[in-house]
Amino acid sequence: MSLVSVGTSGWHYPTGAGTWNGVFYPARRPRGFDELAYYAEHFDTVEVNATFYRMPEAGMSESWLRRTPAGFVFAVKLYQKFTHPDMYLARDGVAGWDLSRADVDLFRHGLDPIAEAGRLGALLVQFPPSFHREPDTAAYLEWLLGHFAGYPLAVELRHRSWSDAADETSRLLSAGGAASVLIDEPKFRDSIRQTLDGPAGALTYVRLHGRNAREWWSHDQAEDRYNYLYSRDELEPFAEVARARSKAGSRVLMYLNNHFSAKAVANAAVLKHELDQLIPGDYPAEMIRRYPDLEGLVRTADLPL
After folding, report:
1. Exposure letters 35-71 (e unless 16+ CB within 10 A, then b)
2. Mean pLDDT score, 274-281
C-alpha cells in the first residue's frame, strides 16, 4: 500500500446547486446503486462527515467496511459534541453540554469496527475558529486526546492563537500522539498560520478547503463556501509535501473539501496524477466537460446522466 492516500471530505452530496448527482454520480441510477461503493472504485480513502453530525454506530461502520475494498481506509471526524459546543448546544440546549467518559465510550464503540479491521487512517478532531488557545482550552484538548489515545489522531486548529504559541501547541499535540492538520483555506487576520515544510511525523494529514474568500463568511448557502477549483499549479505544493513526507516515512492522508459540484473529486484525481498514482474507475463525460484538467488523465464512460 502506498504511504500516500488521496480522497475527498465526504461522498454524499445529493442536493443543492453543488450536488454530485449528474456530475460524478449518475443522475439516473441503476437499481441498487451505492454511492460509497462507486466512490471506492475511484479512491482508496475518504473522510467521513456523517460522524460529526451523529454518533457512529457499530452497524454503520460495519456497513462501510462491507461496501469498500479491504485496502480502503477511513478518516473519521469526531462528533460535534466534543469540538463544537456552540453548534451542539444550539440543537440540544445547555443541558446537552455534559461531556463524560460515557460519551467517549459510545463514540469509540461505533468507531472500533473500523479500527479493529485496520482500516482507520485517522480520527479527525476538528475545532472551529472560535476555539482559541487559552489555559482551559489547552487543558481540554489534552483531556480529549488522552481519552481517544490508541487511535491515530489528527487535530485541526483554525485560530491564530495556536500558531502564535507554536512550540507549546506542538508539544501538546506530540504528547497526545496527535498530528497537526495542515489546512488550506482563505486566510484572515485570526486564521492559523502554518508552513508546508515542517518535520515529518508518523502521520501527515492535509485538508484543502478551497480559497473562496469572497463567500467564506458571507454566502447564500453553506455549500457556496466550498465553490472553488484548484489549479494544477495550486495543487503542486501539496503534492510536494506528500512526496517529501512519505519519503521520510510519514503516512500521508490528503482530503479535498471543495466539494461544490464534485470539484473535490476533480482536484483529488489531478493530485493523484501529480503523485504518479493510478487513477482507477470510470469518470462520466460530464466531469471532463466541466473540469478539462481531467482530459487524458482519467478513463471515461458513457454513464446515464
Report:
1. bbebbbebbbbbbbbebbeeebeeebbeebbeebeee
2. 97
